[in-house]
Amino acid sequence: xxxxxxxxxxxxxxxxxxxxxxxxxxxxxxxxxxxxxxxxxxxxxxxxxxxxxxxxxxxxxxxxx
Length: 65
Known about the structure:
By secondary structure, the chain is mostly helical.
């Protein structure tokens, strides 16, 4: 019975796609930002600053419980 329960739990987790759209939109926004930085060098500095701020915010959030 325990083996069947573990199998069903893995099956449910594998088919769970609730967060997939958010990840896809975030990846697309990142690709657009990188492309904009490559095409327009003046924007590259601003994009770098934004990514640095996001990175530091994420690092701070990961250490808080």
